[in-house]
Specification:
Radius of gyration: 18 Å
Order of helices and strands: EHHEEHEEEHEHHHEEEHE
Helix content: 25-40%
Largest sheet: 7 strands, mixed
Oligomer: single chain
CATH class: Alpha Beta
CATH architecture: 2-Layer Sandwich
Shape: globular
Length: 271
Amino acid sequence: MSESADIPLRTVAFLDILGFKAKLFNTPLLELAHYYERKILESHFMNRPFDPNGQTPTLFREHPPKLPWCSKHVFSDSIILVSHDKDIMSCMKLLVYAWRLSQHFMASGTPLRGGIAFGEMYQNPNLNVFVGKALAKAYELEGCQNWIGVAIDPSVVERFPTVFEVIDKDEYPILNDLIFEYAVPLKDGTTKKLKTLNWRWNLIVEKGTRSLFSDSNDPKVAEKVNNTLRYVETFVQKGRLFVKDQSNLPVELRSFYIGAKEPPFKHGDDF
């Protein structure tokens, strides 16, 4: 795949907030708007280095302190992430940020479903113009999944094979947990084996993973939740849910706690 001066190549994520429409019709508008503003503002703060003084381990030591990991654009209940360039490190920064975002929104009761792809991408934020094959692929991948999760299109794996070869060989167990291969459930009733961003890894929930999902009388919602819990169960069986020693872990990958208590605390169930 070649790149011309006019058509850049980028890694692109399309993330959709599930259940947003239901909240829109069941929550006072200003209450929902202010809540959503807080979540988006918090996500802005997450889109940059966590330790500008360089005192803790990090995945991306050379990244400028005030520069976001990637560009981020919000349209109603959709979030678009675009890497700064076509390079492998920019792709990794976007993947790690999208993973952390999925945990953040899961904790807020507004889970994300998403797709990530690589390819041609044109953006003009001043005019709100965003078009490209990468965005179309990411959007299509997001829309065909039948669960809560973020899947990675084969175009990313094909563009950056060395990253995923290392993962497949288990030479870097942390990445093997963060980017977890799974038979992703699709809306047409089939599954497709894809790399996924594993929101469950290094996530500690005081009341347990099941508490993140509310009961629903809607069969379609219940099916998504059940599919998601099967994903969690599959990963739990690997036995590498958490990193016990956080001191040497890059700050971008450290445990994300959800609960009323002051961390650290134990995870609340077997999921």
